[in-house]
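Lecture notes, part 5. Sequence design as translation. It can be helpful to think of inverse folding as translation between two languages: the language of shapes and the language of residues. The source text, in structure tokens, appears below.
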């Protein structure tokens, strides 16, 4: 991508004030990334426990039944989504580790860290060499606000792998070879559609190729209309294929569409839930629904919507800016995801918006907001605005939510130790004051045939000396 294509003509000279490489920012960003990364993996090492927890008892069912094929794992539906590439790594890692679920925690951490590295590369391609304000990127990606993905129910396919593929997707969008770019984007899109909550990228990719068709039809690019139309057809087919043999399964039993009060929900309650989701990325835990957090969340949500519209309007006028296209992709995904989460989880109450696992999937929005702030001069106050944004990220990124982390870690450890000794689910639930599954007799199967109950799966682990029953040979 040519330098003249990166920003609007009126903003270009001020948005990139110095193109000379500097060792200072590189060292600062490297130091912060290493420090946060080491803390990230030390938390995983110390607090992740080798026992399956909640949803893992459901989506890992294929491993209990037989030797599953890659195709079966890829198209395994869990709740509202498929597992995609999320279980494929486990097919090879679990036999090597005696089904040690800690490998999933490290895989999640590794994917998030790799996604951060790709985001730094994306920033350099869009804007230029690293600067001190790019400290925001490791703060955005390596925040412990997403602790639940690391030591709660570590499912690589839910958010970490989609996040990594989204960063690769955005880098592919900036390619110069059109056929190669289309091929990589469409391939990543197919994987995203079938991997966890990456599924919303299916709609985003349809939008990307609608823009490609629009640009070609208006002769705003040299892309043949047939190529753009073919890309649109493949993107639409990928999204449509998601629904083949799909079983609609709400994530919570209380899910409903409130027909009688739809306008109240659509314009007040759903947006408020979305706002609280965004706020939890910058507010340290413990979190409680309050007017202050709501106002902060609304401000972030409005900024995301406004920046998305700003990027989209520019793309309708000019097809040359990769920065605008990346902004639309990142923000479009997060707005779709947060809207879906609000509709699907609002019956649990507003406090449900603070689920830690949502933080990982909102990282693209904060990255897009940061890129937008970089692209503006802010009346000569650009450095001040960027400094404020970095400071906004620090509290939630730096504070360790010990109460929540220890709740998961100590509870899992106590329960596993108890069960190895007593082999009584109810007794250990009471003894540890903790449960590894809320309804051991009703593990969700999501239409895959007769499922195994928790007791049967624990018996299987004991018989084969796997997971919490594995004991390394004494030296």
């Amino acid at each position: 991508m040519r330098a003249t294509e990166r920003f609007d003509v009126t903003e270009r000279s001020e948005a990139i004030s110095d193109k000379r490489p500097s060792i200072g920012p590189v060292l600062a960003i490297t130091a912060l990334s290493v420090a946060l990364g080491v803390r990230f993996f030390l938390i995983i090492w110390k607090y992740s426990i080798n026992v399956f927890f909640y949803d893992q008892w459901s989506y890992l069912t294929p491993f209990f039944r037989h030797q599953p094929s890659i195709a079966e794992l890829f198209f395994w539906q869990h709740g509202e989504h498929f597992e995609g590439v999320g279980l494929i790594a486990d097919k090879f890692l679990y036999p090597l580790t005696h089904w040690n679920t800690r490998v999933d925690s490290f895989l999640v951490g590794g994917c998030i860290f790799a996604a951060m590295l790709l985001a730094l590369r994306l920033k350099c391609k869009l804007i230029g060499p690293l600067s001190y304000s790019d400290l925001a990127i490791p703060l955005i990606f390596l925040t412990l606000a997403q602790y639940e993905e690391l030591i709660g129910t570590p499912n690589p396919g839910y958010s970490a792998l989609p996040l990594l593929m989204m960063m690769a997707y955005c880098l592919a969008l900036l390619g110069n070879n059109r056929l190669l770019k289309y091929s990589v984007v469409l391939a990543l899109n197919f994987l995203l559609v079938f991997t966890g909550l990456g599924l919303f990228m299916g709609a985003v990719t349809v939008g990307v190729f609608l823009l490609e068709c629009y640009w070609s039809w208006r002769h705003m690019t040299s892309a043949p209309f047939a190529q753009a139309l073919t890309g649109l057809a493949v993107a639409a087919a990928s999204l449509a294929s998601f629904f083949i043999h799909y079983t609609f399964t709400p994530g919570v039993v209380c899910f409903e569409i409130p027909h009688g009060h739809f306008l109240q929900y659509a314009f007040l309650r759903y947006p408020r839930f979305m706002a609280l989701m965004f706020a939890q990325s910058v507010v340290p835990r413990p979190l409680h629904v309050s007017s202050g957090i709501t106002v902060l969340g609304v401000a972030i949500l409005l900024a995301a919507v406004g920046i998305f519209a700003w990027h989209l309007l520019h793309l309708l006028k000019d097809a040359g800016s990769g920065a605008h296209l990346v902004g639309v992709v990142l923000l479009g995904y997060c707005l779709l995801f947060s809207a879906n989460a609000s509709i699907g989880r609002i019956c649990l109450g507003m406090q449900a918006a603070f689920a830690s696992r949502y933080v990982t999937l909102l990282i693209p929005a904060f990255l897009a907001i940061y890129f937008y702030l970089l692209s503006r001069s802010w009346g000569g106050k650009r450095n001040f605005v960027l400094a404020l944004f970095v400071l906004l990220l620090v509290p939630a990124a730096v504070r360790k939510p010990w109460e929540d982390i220890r709740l998961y870690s100590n509870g899992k450890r106590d329960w596993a130790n108890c069960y190895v000794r007593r082999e009584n689910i109810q007794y250990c639930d009471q003894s540890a004051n903790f449960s590894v599954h809320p309804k051991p007799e009703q593990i969700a199967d999501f239409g895959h045939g007769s499922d195994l109950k928790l007791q049967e799966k624990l018996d299987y682990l004991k018989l084969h000396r796997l997971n919490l029953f594995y004991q390394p040979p004494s030296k």
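The translated text above is only one of many valid answers, since several sequences can fold into similar shapes. The first helix runs from residue 12 to 15.
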